[in-house]
Amino acid sequence: MFCPFGLGPFGCPPGYYSNGSSTSCHVCPRGTFCEAGSDLPKLCPAGEFCDNIPQSCPQGFYSSAGSVDCTPCPAGYYCHFCVAGSGSAAPCPLGTFSPAAGNSQQGQCTLCTAGMACPRGALTAPLENCELGHYCPSGTIYPTHAPIQKCSRGHFCPAGTSFPTQYPCPPGTFTESNELASAAECTACPPGFYCLGGEAKVSGQCPTGYYCPTNTESSFQFPCPAGTYNSQVGITSVEGCLECPPGNFCLQGSSFAIPCFAGTYS
Fold first, then answer.
1. pLDDT in tens, 152-167
2. What DSSP line would sit under 109-146, residue for residue?
């Protein structure tokens, strides 16, 4: 709140804050954000960038907390559709590589070249030649024959699977099991959460401004419609989005109602 000329108090608009002892509002510093009526700036969450207002990093980018810009996902990695609480790059799995930066999903990692092996994650090129007396099809992890391995959690392994992470569970599903034979056995993502696919657990809880029914594939798949908002995490249906109150406006995917600007009303 701020009190100009002893009048008020008044709430600062979004992008500004007042410590309560000021007669004016201050611009929210870069790397932070300020909701309407803020007393102090809040640190920009990981997976977002803030120049007064928090914005999510696009696919293929990531950020740490307090960032003013997003960083392209480096070669050998992929970056999910970033949300608050993420903000890190995932390595391309064993048996794959990626020479390109800016990957947004595991499927953009390239299977290891036939005749080569990729025994480590986060490779930018195949690492080893196939050993004499062995053969190495596309996606080979080790340059010599390896014992049969368990399927990786978050994946399924039908007959003829070459490596444990060859077939990720599709978006909207996950699995803690390492004994699945088909995608149909992957577990449906529960309501209130989202599942990017290829993971052993749910990817995260539905963020504010969005709702997540069963089998939701990403945190931003189902935004609250324009004219509504949602300040709670984990809501499961559009009915959880609240009607924008009089004197405010709410954009699609709003986490809170924004007061009408000075000189306007609703």
1. 999 999 988 878 899 9
2. SEEPPTTEE--SSS-SS--EEPPTT----TT--SSS--
